[in-house]
Amino acid sequence: MRSRFILPAFFLLLLLALAGCGKTGETDAAGNKIYPPDEQGYVVIDGEEKKLEKGNYSWEVKKGLTTEVTQTDAASPNQIAENVEAITAPPDTEMSFKLVGDPTFKVYLWNKQDREKEIELQEGKFRTPTEKGRYIYEVLAEWENGEISYTYVIELE
User: Fold this and answer.
1) How do residues 12-48 score in pLDDT, each as one tens digit?
2) Which of 112, 128, 141 has its CA nearest to residue 39?
3) Among 43, 111, 128, 155, residue whose Cα is nearest residue 119
4) pTM for the model
């Protein structure tokens, strides 16, 4: 009789243990994700949200006296841009960003090899160049627990 209850009890304990492993939804007191955010980031152009492509990230979680660090490696923004559909917009268009939580961020313009320059933001916004062409941008978002690199490509027509 006892053996009939051991197997179901084992599976129930296993299920509960596995359910406790998915901590991506936990937040700190400020509402920031404790584990790397799963949510998508967006660039906002003329009121329309366009998806940012997530690249590498680094995230830290303090657990008592220890710190758990998660770090990924991804292709560079110029490599990611090769497989990303460009957003089309007219020159001199205002852009801003919509990201989960309240991160600070820096925006970089990329050329075919590396970062070309940091873009100066005015109240979290900036304008696209006035010259037509294809531009690769990296948005480096920083939260209290870590940072994520996002990439997007814009084609100015």
Assistant:
1) 444 444 444 444 456 666 555 566 667 789 999 989 9
2) 141
3) 128
4) 0.77
